[in-house]
Design brief:
This protein is mainly alpha-helical. It has four helices and two strands. α1 runs antiparallel to α3.
Length: 134
Amino acid sequence: MVRINLISPRLLSDQHLGAEYNEILMLLGYVRQYPRVKPGSIPPTYRLGAGHVLFFKNKLLYLKKRHAALKKEMRSRGYRPTKTVSLGAFPASLKKDWKPRPADLAVIKKRLASKLRAKPHFYTWYGRPMARMR
């Protein structure tokens, strides 16, 4: 499963931060292996579930910027991320930027809140249990 969380990396739990860092790399690996885009296959709007990966298939510049922001936040939390995204091998048609709409942010915020509520003692933020931050 690949999730791009959209919200500021500073707001993500340690677990979501690290997972998204790795999942962007997985998504780029998928696009590298399957670079062709069938006309009409990319959903017009952000979504979770079916179509989530396809939505980002032509938004690689956004993913590169997002990955850099995740790395910066990881470093501020004491992690040592080493991977860097390079878009040189991808066709220009896949290197689009993108800006989330308020509705997109609402979708992912709802999902993240649900995940945090489901496992309140699992998630940490800067190494501190989030359950104690209420």
